[in-house]
Specification:
single chain, alpha+beta, four-stranded mixed β-sheet, 6 strands, about 15% strand
């Protein structure tokens, strides 16, 4: 990311040389976490396009997702009116919280855990986020009774076979012009495809971004 040096120089760090950074999921507006940056970690974030923070407890830099794989791809960085707080819009891979929760803000002030559906913003992509979180959890915590785990354990056979089967079911539903079956079978196809995306660490947002890219093509290049 290209940033004017004079703008970086206007940031106000606290006496420890840190500035708070609020991280927000760009796809649904959900606040994911709060961390701190120093000048070095901010520069590394700008250079790599991945969030890098400063750990106050360990006194060292840390890249989000470096060990868990739950990386954050930076889409935009905003600065508040006083230049002493950052708002970082990201594409979140997996979950943001080390507890396995989608967001670090999953409890109310009384300590009651908030259901996932309430954690996430109520928009079209929330169910997709919920499913991807479940798939990520199954990857980290395999269960013998889990259908998703059985799919993930057979990426070269069972997983693609099921996607092919579900695609065929969609074709049959389309041929029969059965609207209810089209909805039902398409949901099955999407579900199995999302499992595959999770296995290969491909966020569904990447698919949406590709569709947006195609939409922006010149008319002569676009299939639309």
């Amino acid at each position: 990311m290209k940033v004017k040096q004079e703008l970086l120089g206007q940031l106000k760090y606290n006496r420890e040389g840190l500035i708070p950074a609020i991280v927000q999921d760009e796809s649904n507006g959900r606040v994911l976490m709060l961390a701190y940056m120093n000048e070095e970690s901010l520069k590394k974030t700008l250079q790599t396009g991945k969030t890098c923070f400063y750990s106050r407890s360990r006194s060292k830099l840390w890249v989000k997702g470096e060990t868990s794989g739950n990386m954050q791809k930076v889409k935009k960085i905003l600065v508040d009116c006083d230049s002493d707080t950052l708002l970082i819009l990201v594409e979140q891979k997996g979950v943001a919280c080390h507890t396995g929760s989608y967001s670090c803000f999953f409890r109310d002030i009384e300590g009651k855990e908030i259901p996932l559906k309430e954690q996430q913003s109520r928009n079209e992509s929330s169910i997709l986020d919920e499913l991807m979180q479940v798939f990520e959890d199954r990857k980290r915590n395999p269960r013998p009774d889990s259908y998703v785990c059985r799919l993930l354990a057979s990426p070269g056979e069972k997983m693609p076979k099921k996607i092919a089967e579900e695609a065929a079911e969609v074709l049959i539903a389309l041929k029969d012009r059965n609207k209810n079956q089209i909805i039902y079978e398409t949901a099955d196809l999407w579900f199995h495809t999302l499992v595959a995306l999770s296995y290969y660490n491909v966020p569904y947002q990447a698919i949406l971004d590709e569709l947006k890219r195609r939409r922006k093509l010149e008319p002569k290049e676009s299939c639309w």
